[in-house]
Write a structure and sequence with these properties.
With about 130 residues, this protein is α+β, with helices and mostly antiparallel strands. The chain has a single domain, classed as Cytidine Deaminase, domain 2, CATH 3.40.140. Helices cover about 30% and strands about 25% of the residues. The chain has helices spanning about 15-25, 65-75, 95-110; strands spanning about 35-40, 45-55, 80-85, 115-120, 125. A five-stranded mixed β-sheet has the order 2-1-3-4-5, sandwiched between helices. α2 packs parallel to α3 (about 95-110). The radius of gyration is 13 Å and the shape is globular.
């Protein structure tokens, strides 16, 4: 399921603003199923487009082609990602790391940057950027 959620002008230029925004997005979802949220930003960190990709208890869809197509369509300068881990462990899995690296490589080819990928588990939140994974 994909849709526009952001209301202009939503600015995601601070880590706390990003966490709060995605925490609100994930609050709309079933916590027993993974959901991936993707926010496309312009060069000034204004949100251009938001999409949600549903998963199940074991993982969320990570549609790299669709995310890159949206980035090209919206002329995104940056992309923020967030998903939840129903297990309660906010640590990135190897699959999370691999998919994020592949997306970062594809985004780089169109002059777009993966700004961060957040993983939420209960009240905990992990940042790929803070962990040095981006």
């Amino acid at each position: 399921m994909r849709y526009q959620r952001a209301e202009s002008p939503l600015k995601l230029d601070r880590p706390d603003a990003v966490r709060d925004f995605f925490r609100g997005c994930l609050a709309e979802c079933d916590p027993a199923r993974e959901s991936l949220w993707v926010a496309h930003l312009d060069a000034g960190a204004q949100c251009l487009h938001v999409s949600r990709h549903e998963g199940d208890e074991t993982g969320a869809a990570f549609p790299i082609r669709s995310i890159i197509a949206d980035a090209a369509l919206h002329e995104s300068a940056g992309i923020l990602l967030a998903h939840n881990h129903p297990s309660g462990d906010p640590s990135p899995s190897e699959a999370d790391c691999r998919a994020t690296r592949r997306l970062a490589s594809a985004a780089d080819a169109i002059d777009c940057t993966i700004i961060d990928h957040l993983i939420f588990a209960g009240d905990d939140c992990t940042s790929f950027r803070r962990m040095g994974l981006l």
